[in-house]
């Protein structure tokens, strides 16, 4: 069966006014079903990648954007020709030691026996008070 769902990461931008407050809290993804049939997907794993380091995220919550309805990560329904934007939130990861490094939230989605990874870039900006 040909995979009919395209998945891409959406860039997340967070601004903090103190480096000590910087946290990594979520990733965002867009799923598009290009078929004429509804499909069901699940999220089989979630990681935070900082350069070459991988931080496993065993517990997370999935929300449908823009209304923030919570979805079951084991049963994400996607109607025919539907595009769905998701936020995947998790317990905050202190980012003080990760400033000026590439940060990505990597989700592995499963549709039947097919696995697909997508990465959501996480951009931290520290602004100083004037």
Protein model, in words:
This protein is an all-beta fold. The protein has one domain (5-126): ntegrin, alpha v. Chain A, domain 4 (Immunoglobulin-like). The chain is 0% helix and 64% strand. It has no helices and 11 strands. The strands form 2 sheets. Strands 2, 4, 5, 8, 10 and 11 form a 6-stranded mixed beta sheet that branches. The chain has a 5-stranded antiparallel beta sheet with strand order 1-3-9-6-7, with no helix packed on it.
Features:
single chain; 130 residues; Immunoglobulin-like; six-stranded mixed β-sheet; five-stranded antiparallel β-sheet; 64% strand
Q: Which segments are poorly predicted (pLDDT under 50) over 5 or more consecutive residues? A: none
Q: Count the beta strands.
A: 11
Oligomer: single chain
Order of helices and strands: EEEEEEEEEEE
Percentage of β-strand residues: over 45%
CATH architecture: Sandwich
Radius of gyration: 16 Å
Global morphology: elongated
Secondary structure category: mainly beta
Taking the sheet with the most strands, its summary is: 6 strands, mixed
Our count of helices gives: 0
Corresponding CATH superfamily: ntegrin, alpha v. Chain A, domain 4
What is the domain tally? 1
Helix amount:
under 10%
* CATH level-1 class: Mainly Beta
Ends distance: 57 Å
Mean pLDDT: 93
